[in-house]
């Protein structure tokens, strides 16, 4: 394997683009010192090589993965691409090179540096996707359902099938805000579709929606056992970063519909 | 009564039921229906006590004709009472489910009029959900002891998981605290459910579209700490339930004092959470680690050691089996190393196919060595720099919270009032100071 060359690859941030980086690395017999996608790129003193995304090249690399590594390798590599590991591109390139060198043994080499780092990143990705399967909250607007999520990893491709299976007769949209990716499904479609979207503006919720939010909040408060209060355990299972999007942790004022004034007056101190 | 108030009362009465899992059955979505289930279960939120909330856990009603001393809903307790109408509860479930608040419904009930009547009410809810609303999500239902077997059968066809609470770990405790219930009335529906699940497993081989009876199996729960029963009795009973009744889970619930009664611990006692935790640890050892109850406890040591976990305790009593060589030991032995769990064992088995594992490698795999390092060798070597001192070992093996219990640390202060010692007094008197 060649030593690290003094070259930086710049690609467009797509999975196909990354596969083209792998292609280039083999074609030019060099190991880049860093791979950046367009957004992250900061000026550097190393020579920069711009990698054009060529679907034919990407396809050649992709097809070679199961042949040269193992049948499960494409999935591992795709999942690795979805993680939020800061140097996932370099990690994946190293993993593919290791796989091509070692064959199917590579996927079992858990004590190897590259493999253990990659698997650890994938483990976090899967853990986050499991979390979000439960922690997504839909709001119903005129019969259509919308949810906004803010995950660290790009989990949407892993969880969308679950929601299509769960809600086959509903129209819904899940919007991943940090990754600017949406997933839209409406009944009649066999599978949903991914949309690239910048932001979403939601109308104010309807009365029925507010009523169910209020009921859920009430249920959530009633279900905890006061004598066993354990905020530490709660925080371990449900990290605080998820809470702003969870109905049961909203501030009450954003949740309650306008209540008749006499209800509010009841709680005020008596006036003299 | 407004629906919110009703929901809060009936959730509050149901909160002492432990089981809130949505696991045990994989069922994909079907077009035209609502919902699916996943066999590992999904937690939708965690309540303030740190427990997973996966199902809408409510009682159908908290009116009850029984007077079980340990229960909040006993006849003589003065609490607000209410009941859901079947339609109300079904609507609530569907709307929560669509918004992804819950994975399904957990339905239990106080006994109104008689067990059969109560059971019919519950069947009504499930029928609305399954037939009218085409609900395909998870349903956990409590079988009512004493209800007719035909009704239990109907419940089982509609639900995914059924459970009958065994409530207290011995017949004697049951007689004193729950005079309306008997061992027989609890075990009869349990047996019926077990037999039906078994019959059903042969039916679905013969007939492809045979309705599934409680596909996620049955579970039970018992209260820990309300009666003088020992951990040994409880664990023995648990093992028996897994073996003889093919239960999927046995849950333990630390008794939270709800009543001032001479038969029960006083209202000020804290729930025995550590004891409950140890029982769950042992329960895991029974189900996933190949342990037997008699290995963990016996008549001479009928209770768990509060300082170390059950597996570590077992290992310390069987030091002749250690250290274990990571690179050659069989799976069964790897599972018995303190601090090494099922996931780590799986990874060790995978990794050692491609090369020998060192301590460094073990760390990279993700195994936690804090406790394990004292019980293993890698390639014939002990962990490098491992000092086996009594103090250090204790600190590593004791479970969380007890590490510092021996020493008393304190924040030193420049201005704390000086302690006048005998010596100071003497110095003062002799003029040295």
From TrEMBL, chain A:
Xref: InterPro entries: DNA_repair_put, DUF4130
DUF4130 domain location: 86-248
Cited NCBIfam families: SAM_7_link_chp
Protein name (record): TIGR03915 family putative DNA repair protein
Species of provenance: Youxingia wuxianensis
From TrEMBL, chain B:
Entry superkingdom: Bacteria
Annotated Gene3D superfamilies: Aldolase class I (3.20.20.70)
Signal peptide positions on this chain: none
Keyword annotations: Iron, Iron-sulfur, Metal-binding, S-adenosyl-L-methionine
InterPro entries named in the record: Aldolase_TIM, DNA_rSAM_put, Endo/Exo/Phosphatase_dom_1, rSAM, rSAM_sf, RuvA_2-like
Lipid metabolism recorded as keyword: no
The keyword Metal-binding is annotated on this UniProt entry: yes
GO molecular function: catalytic activity; iron-sulfur cluster binding; metal ion binding
Record protein name field: DNA modification/repair radical SAM protein
Organism the protein comes from: Youxingia wuxianensis
């Amino acid at each position: 394997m060649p030593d690290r060359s003094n070259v930086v690859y710049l690609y467009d941030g797509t999975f196909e683009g990354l596969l083209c980086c792998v292609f280039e690395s083999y074609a030019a017999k060099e190991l880049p010192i860093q791979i950046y996608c367009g957004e992250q790129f900061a000026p550097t003193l190393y020579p920069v090589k711009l990698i054009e995304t060529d679907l034919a090249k990407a396809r050649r690399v992709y097809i070679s993965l199961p042949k040269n590594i193992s049948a499960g390798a494409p999935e591992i590599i795709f999942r690795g691409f979805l993680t939020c590991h800061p140097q996932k591109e370099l990690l994946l390139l190293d993993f593919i090179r290791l796989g091509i060198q070692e064959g199917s043994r590579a996927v079992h080499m858990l004590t190897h540096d590259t493999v253990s780092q990659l698997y650890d990143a994938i483990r976090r990705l899967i853990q986050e996707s499991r979390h979000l399967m439960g922690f997504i909250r839909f709001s119903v607007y005129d019969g259509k359902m919308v949810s906004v999520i803010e995950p660290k990893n790009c989990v949407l491709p892993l969880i969308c099938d679950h929601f299509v299976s769960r809600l086959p007769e509903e129209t819904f949209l899940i919007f991943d805000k940090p990754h600017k990716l949406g997933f839209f499904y409406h009944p009649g479609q066999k599978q949903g579709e991914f949309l690239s979207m910048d932001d979403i503006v939601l109308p104010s919720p309807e009365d029925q929606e507010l009523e169910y939010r209020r009921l859920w909040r009430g249920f959530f408060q009633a279900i905890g056992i006061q004598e066993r209060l354990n905020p530490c355990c709660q925080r371990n299972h449900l990290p605080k970063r998820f809470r702003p999007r969870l109905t049961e942790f909203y501030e009450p004022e954003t949740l309650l519909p306008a209540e008749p004034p006499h209800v509010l007056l009841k709680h005020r101190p008596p006036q003299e | 009564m407004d629906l919110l108030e009703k929901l809060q009362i009936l959730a509050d009465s149901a909160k002492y039921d432990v089981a809130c899992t949505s696991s045990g059955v994989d069922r994909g979505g079907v077009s035209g229906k609502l919902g699916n289930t996943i066999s590992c279960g999904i937690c939708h939120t965690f309540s303030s006590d740190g427990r997973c909330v996966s199902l809408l856990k409510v009682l159908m009603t908290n009116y009850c004709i029984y007077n079980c001393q340990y229960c909040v809903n006993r006849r003589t307790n003065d609490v607000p009472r209410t009941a859901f109408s079947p339609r109300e509860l079904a609507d609530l479930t569907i709307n929560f489910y669509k918004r992804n608040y819950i994975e399904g419904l957990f339905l239990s009930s106080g006994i109104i009029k008689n067990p059969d009547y109560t059971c019919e009410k519950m069947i009504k809810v499930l029928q609305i959900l399954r037939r009218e609303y085409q609900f395909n999500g998870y349903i956990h239902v409590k079988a009512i002891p004493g209800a007719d077997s035909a009704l239990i059968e109907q419940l089982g066809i509609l639900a995914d998981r059924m459970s009958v609470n065994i409530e207290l770990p011995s017949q004697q405790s049951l007689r004193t605290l729950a005079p309306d219930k008997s061992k027989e009335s609890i075990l009869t529906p349990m047996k019926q459910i077990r037999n039906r699940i078994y019959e059903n497993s042969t039916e679905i081989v013969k007939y492809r579209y045979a309705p599934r009876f409680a596909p996620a199996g049955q579970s039970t729960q018992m209260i820990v700490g309300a009666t003088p029963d020992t951990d040994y009795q409880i664990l023995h009973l648990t093992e028996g339930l897994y073996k003889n009744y093919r239960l999927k889970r046995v849950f333990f619930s630390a008794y939270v004092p709800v009543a001032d009664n001479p038969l029960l611990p006083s209202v000020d006692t804290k729930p025995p959470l550590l004891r409950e935790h140890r029982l769950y640890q042992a329960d895991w050892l029974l189900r996933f680690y190949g342990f037997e109850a008699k290995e963990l406890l016996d008549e001479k040591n009928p209770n768990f050691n509060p300082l170390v976990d059950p597996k570590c305790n077992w290992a310390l009593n069987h030091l002749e089996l250690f250290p274990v060589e990571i690179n050659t030991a069989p799976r069964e032995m790897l599972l018995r190393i303190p601090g090494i769990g099922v996931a780590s064992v799986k990874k060790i088995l995978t990794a050692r196919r491609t090369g020998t594992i060192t301590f460094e490698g073990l760390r990279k795999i993700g195994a936690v060595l804090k406790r394990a390092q004292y019980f293993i060798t890698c390639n014939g070597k002990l962990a490098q720099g491992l000092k086996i001192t009594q103090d250090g070992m204790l600190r590593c093996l004791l479970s969380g919270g007890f590490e510092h219990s021996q020493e008393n640390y304190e924040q030193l202060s420049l201005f704390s009032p000086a302690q006048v010692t005998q010596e100071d007094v003497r110095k003062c008197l002799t003029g040295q100071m």
